[in-house]
Design a protein that fits this description.
The structure is a single chain. By secondary structure, this protein is of the alpha/beta class. The protein has three domains: 122 residues, Rossmann fold, CATH 3.40.50.10800; 100 residues, NadA-like (Rossmann fold, 3-Layer(aba) Sandwich), CATH 3.40.50; 78 residues, 3-Layer(aba) Sandwich (Rossmann fold), CATH 3.40.50.10800. The chain contains 15 helices and twelve strands. The strands form three sheets. The chain has a four-stranded parallel beta sheet, sandwiched between helices. Strand 3, helix 5 and strand 4 form a beta-alpha-beta unit. Helix 1 packs across helix 2, helix 2 packs parallel to helix 14 and helix 4 packs parallel to helix 5. The radius of gyration is 20 Å and the shape is globular. The chain binds iron/sulfur cluster.
């Protein structure tokens, strides 16, 4: 393990434009202890792209989006997986690794999408639309995955829908992602409501959606884009597909968090604006100091924000909070997750 002085210097270099220096000193001490404990306990730390910059750039062995981290979780040989992300992600790691200890540093780190739908809702949709396959976004809890045929992430949602080779698909629970996938695949979409479970023969049922939304991405508006373009006409705007279809259409590029990172690395532009969770903008800025990143940073995910370096240290010290998934649910959810990973 490198010396503390070396580690501190590396953190100062990476974070100098995004974290005040006094804060880097405090966080470097905690991060160094986490990394020591991680080795001692034979643990791996997975860090989602939305982690705050000091955590993101100091302790994860792997960083990425939900799909990338699921793949890594499926392959790890460590005894403990510490998931610096939200609960549904840690659950996915547990679904893939039943014999390992999976820790989520903050017990309450949820997600507005995951909380928008229950397993009972999926069962009712299946009764309403018999024989129609169910695609669930990975941002769902294990019992919803267990009721699904296949999961998807924002990076492979269209490919998963296409892979089913059928005309009608139930796509849950993100309304905006469903609309964006419908546009990409040429499928139409309808939204059943709790009071209107009866099928209407006049509606087109190629894609059946739900009314969940990401409380972060739903906040971006076309007006935001117009305002930024008025001030910076040469800006390239990247939008996450959990944004509304109108926002996606008004942007220059739409893709998962990993696709946005690749875009900024590969495409030269005078300046970029990322319409996504604001810590990710900081993380990309720290990794690409030569690129000009504009900030529209009023939106921090309150659930991702629950995960701190202090909590991650406590998680390793006290082996908390242990994620459990009942075996009967895990086995059914595993099928849907494995199908997602296989589609890539
Ligand atoms: S950013 Fe949105 S989708 Fe991601 S965890 Fe937060 S609420 Fe859920």
């Amino acid at each position: 393990m490198e010396s503390y002085e070396q580690f501190l210097e590396e953190m100062k270099t990476k974070l100098r434009d995004v974290v005040p220096e006094p804060e880097i000193y405090i966080k470097a001490e905690i991060a160094y202890e986490i990394n020591r404990l991680k080795q001692e306990r034979n643990a791996v730390i997975l860090g989602h792209n939305y982690m705050e910059p000091a955590l993101f750039h100091s302790i994860p062995d792997y960083v990425g989006d939900s799909l990338g981290l699921s793949r890594i979780a499926a392959q790890t040989d460590k005894d403990i997986i510490v998931f610096c992300g939200v609960r549904f992600m840690a659950e996915t790691a547990k679904i893939l690794n039943p014999e390992k200890t999976v820790l989520l540093p903050a017990a309450r780190a949820g997600c507005s999408l995951a909380e928008s739908i229950t397993a009972g809702d999926v069962r009712r949709l299946r009764e309403q639309f018999p024989g129609v396959p169910v695609v669930s976004y990975v941002n769902t809890y294990a019992d919803v995955k267990a009721e699904s045929d296949v999961c998807c992430t924002s990076s492979n949602a269209a490919a998963v829908v296409e892979s089913l080779g059928v005309d009608t698909v139930i796509f849950l629970p993100d309304e905006y992602l469903a609309r964006n996938v419908a546009r990409e695949t040429g499928k139409h979409i309808i939204f059943p409501t709790k009071s209107g479970w009866k099928a209407d023969a006049t509606l087109d049922y190629q894609l059946i959606g739900w009314h969940g939304r990401c409380e972060v991405h739903e906040q971006f508006t076309v007006q935001d884009i117009e305002d930024i373009r008025a001030e910076y006409p040469d800006v390239v705007i990247l939008a996450h597909p959990e944004c509304s279809p109108e926002v996606v259409a008004a942007s220059d590029f739409s893709g998962s968090t990993s696709a946005m990172i690749r875009y900024v690395q590969d495409v030269d532009a005078p300046r970029y604006l990322l319409l996504t969770e604001c810590a990710m903008g900081d993380n990309i800025a720290a990794a690409n100091p030569e690129k000009a990143m504009l900030r529209l940073c009023r939106v921090r995910c309150p659930h991702m924000n629950e995960i701190t370096l202090e909590d991650t240290l406590a998680a390793l010290q006290k082996t908390q909070y242990v994620i459990e998934v009942p075996e009967e649910i895990r086995l059914r959810a595993l099928r849907a997750v494995e199908r997602m990973i296989a589609i890539g």
